[in-house]
């Protein structure tokens, strides 16, 4: 049996016209060679060489839930999906190695949308040093993209949520609150401040942060995806500690103050509970916080109320993180 | 911050009532310990130890596309998703090691559906010797399940689609046509023959087949997921060979004959083009086909028409495999 030749995706085509294999070819046609990738797309599985233990993480984005096609361009959707997934790898202290994507879409989706989305994935993959090695393409009523990523610990131990110790300093690398403020802007029908809208569309992940924290001896680390309080809450629970944050450690960014004032919100809600910027939060032995990281608090023994996160010595009133079913 | 306690899924609850973290707990609460899994669910990523090169494959099933909730029980949907994914690992000659699942569902889905589905995944994972190590749970308008699996080559080379050589014998391990015939039965509103319906709902993958083929020196191998002709077509193209199949090598199973007769179909359409049974097809040097494998043809040099699959010396009239967007 020979595979019939089909046209490449252009503006005029839908996925139904291009076909499953046409889309796969357009995704895999221009992949860069990577010495770690022994077998790329096109067989039953990809084959990748890693040196140490393997870190795995998987993340799904759904059209209308995690992104709105009228707000985000397809390449932004692709970039964001990869950035969010790779952030988990670096938060474990691993080196990003390989990525597979499962792409579900309706047959009447413009093939160009799918192609630009996967181009965005490749852009962000190149930024973070990860190789796209394969995937699955299938039809469904709505666009659903699952990105699964693999990191290499290269002989070292993972940096877990459970390693924070009383006395450690708590530090942050990357932005918080920007994505949530950008979402607020878009939700109110505005397109500016542009920096916030852009931050919502594609998070700016500091890909060097995981390695910086590892080198400095981080005792615990987490990707801030659900919001700073929610994610440090996971660290507190896993480590059996209390995390004390100080608001005077932060400078509220001017655009976030502006959006809070214009929309009647508390800027601290964005900073403390806004997710999806994918900063890294980590704990370090006293005096060993690396350059570029912002010290935001300290780890303490738990009190009577158990593991918790306090802000200026008090529980935060609106501390809820994001729950996908609520 | 403390994570508030929530009820476990029961018949009465929807995912919206149970919450994202409640569902995650119900999935990960009873995982068996596995020496290969260094860090299980609950951190930014799972950590897995593998000996050799890593094989990766990802597969998505969508409600209404790959399964119908009125035809398949939730645990059958889960079993099938895992079986299909693991079949790709063994078709590469690797040992199944770890699995992550991305589960997207509407908030009003019964929590028991999600729980039974993941229980089915665990049942099939145990059968195939793979460990569930993590996942992602998110809301969306329809159930979409992406299973990503990891295999260990343990110092050996992968068995690719591209290694078939003229003179090799072509052999098959597992059933073909059963799932397609079962689907035909259900599509016509019947529930029997039960063996076919069951084969459609949960494929019976021969998990030892990959190792058997490797030990015997298979030159190429593929998971028959799209249909025998379509998948051997991939082998022919990748290897630059012709594959000659002989129909007299097959015995048409009695239930398939019965369904073909009752529904006005050609039983050979089921056998040659029916997908989703996840048999393995492989090529072997002459005389080295292992026990339990059915010799179904031979590999030859390509003729003027290039790589192809012939049935009794002729192209098969209806040779199309499944294209998800057509």
**Count of alpha/pi helices of chain A:** 10
The CATH architecture designation of the largest domain in chain A is Alpha-Beta Complex
The chain-level mean pLDDT of chain A equals 92
Globular, elongated, flat, extended or rod-shaped: what is the shape of chain A? globular
Structural class of chain A: alpha+beta
**The CATH H-level homologous superfamily of the largest domain in chain A:** PurM-like C-terminal domain
**Biggest sheet features of chain A:** 6 strands, mixed
Q: Report the order of strands and helices of chain A.
A: HHEEEHEHEEEHHHEHEHHEEE
Please name the CATH topology of the largest domain in chain A: Phosphoribosyl-aminoimidazole Synthetase, Chain A, domain 2
Q: How much β-strand is present in the residues of chain A?
A: 15-25%
CATH class of the largest domain in chain A: Alpha Beta
Radius of gyration of chain A: 21 Å
Query: Helical proportion of chain A?
Result: 25-40%
EC number (chains A, B): 2.7.4.16
InterPro entries (chains A, B): PurM-like_C_dom, PurM-like_C_sf, PurM-like_N, PurM-like_N_sf, ThiL-like
Pfam families (chains A, B): AIRS, AIRS_C
Keywords (chains A, B): ATP-binding, Kinase, Magnesium, Metal-binding, Nucleotide-binding, Thiamine biosynthesis, Transferase
Which keywords apply here?
homodimer; 326 residues; alpha+beta; 60s Ribosomal Protein L30, Chain: A; Phosphoribosyl-aminoimidazole Synthetase, Chain A, domain 2; 2 domains; 4-stranded mixed sheet; 10 helices; 12 strands; 32% helix; 23% strand; globular; disordered N terminus; thiamine biosynthesis (chains A, B); magnesium (chains A, B); nucleotide-binding (chains A, B)
């Amino acid at each position: 049996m020979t595979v019939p030749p089909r046209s490449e995706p252009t503006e005029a085509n839908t996925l139904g016209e291009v076909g499953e294999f046409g889309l796969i070819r357009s995704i895999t046609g221009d992949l860069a060679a990577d010495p770690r990738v022994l077998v790329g797309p096109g067989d039953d599985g990809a084959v990748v060489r890693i040196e140490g233990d393997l870190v795995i993480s998987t993340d799904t984005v759904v059209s209308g839930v995690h992104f709105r096609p009228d707000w985000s361009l397809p390449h932004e959707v692709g970039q964001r999906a990869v950035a969010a997934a790779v952030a988990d790898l670096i938060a474990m202290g691993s080196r990003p190695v390989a990525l597979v994507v499962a792409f579900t879409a309706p047959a009447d989706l413009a093939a160009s949308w799918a192609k630009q989305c996967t181009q965005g994935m490749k852009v962000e993959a190149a930024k973070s040093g990860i190789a796209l090695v394969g995937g699955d393409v299938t039809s469904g009523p709505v666009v659903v993209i699952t990105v699964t990523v693999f990191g290499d610990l290269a002989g070292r131990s993972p940096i877990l949520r459970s390693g924070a110790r009383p006395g450690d300093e708590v530090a942050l690398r990357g932005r918080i609150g920007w994505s949530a403020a950008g979402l607020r802007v878009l939700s109110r029908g505005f397109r500016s401040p542009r920096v916030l809208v852009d931050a919502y569309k594609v998070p700016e992940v500091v890909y060097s942060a995981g390695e910086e924290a590892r080198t400095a001896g981080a005792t615990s680390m987490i990707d801030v995806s659900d919001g700073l309080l929610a994610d440090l809450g996971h660290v507190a629970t896993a480590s059996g500690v209390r995390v004390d944050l100080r608001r005077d450690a932060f400078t509220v960014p001017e655009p976030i103050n502006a959006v809070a004032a214009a929309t009647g919100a508390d800027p601290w809600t964005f900073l403390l509970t806004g997710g999806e910027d994918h900063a890294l939060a980590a704990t370090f032995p006293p005096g060993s916080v690396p350059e570029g990281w912002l010290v935001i608090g300290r780890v303490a023994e738990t009190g009577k109320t158990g593991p918790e996160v306090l802000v200026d010595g008090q529980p935060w009133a609106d501390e809820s993180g994001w729950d996908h079913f609520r």
